[in-house]
Amino acid sequence: MSDHDAVEQVITMAWRAHPDLSWWQQGVCEFVGDIKYKKPIGKAKNADLYQLLAYVTGTSLPVGLLVYVGNEDETIAHQVKGSDRSLHLMAIRIDGALADLRLEIQRVAVHVRHLREREPVPAQPSRAAN
Q1: Does residue 56 fall inside a structural domain?
Q2: CA 108 to CA 124: how far, in whole Å?
Q3: C-alpha separations of 99 from 3, 105, 108 in Å
Q4: Contacts of 69 (CB under 8 A, 6+ apart)
Q5: What SS3 class is residue 87?
Q6: What is the pLDDT of residues 43-70, one digit of tens each?
Q7: 94-118 pLDDT, tens per residue?
Q8: Would you say residue 53 lies in a domain?
Q9: Is residue 124 one of the residues assigned to a domain?
Q10: Is the pTM for the entire model greater than 0.90?
Q11: Number of domains the chain is built from
Q12: Is residue 122, in this structure, part of any structural domain at all?
């Protein structure tokens, strides 16, 4: 098996796992992302990044989003070496009141919209810790 065939096989296998987030318009995937209920974004595991990269590659998209549970305000964008693809990571807090969780979901929605529309993602205000 060639390297190219092996990469295609990994992408196909990862895609069968189905990403947690996707946005489809007239049968075309315009956004893909995944959610992890574990380590904060500063400690992203390679397996999570490779899985997201497989989703992004499998859909021929330039960008994907990985959402972690955590306290970080910072959103990180990793440019994939030798590629025009980037992987964005952001954290959401789930330990607050329901109103706080709604605000966190809104932050994710804003990020998704900007990535989907290929717009720069604006800096979002820092969140107050509980």
Answers
A1: yes
A2: 10
A3: 48, 10, 15
A4: 36, 37, 38, 40, 91, 92, 93, 94
A5: strand
A6: 667 888 888 998 998 889 999 999 988 8
A7: 888 999 999 999 999 999 999 998 8
A8: yes
A9: no
A10: no
A11: 1
A12: no
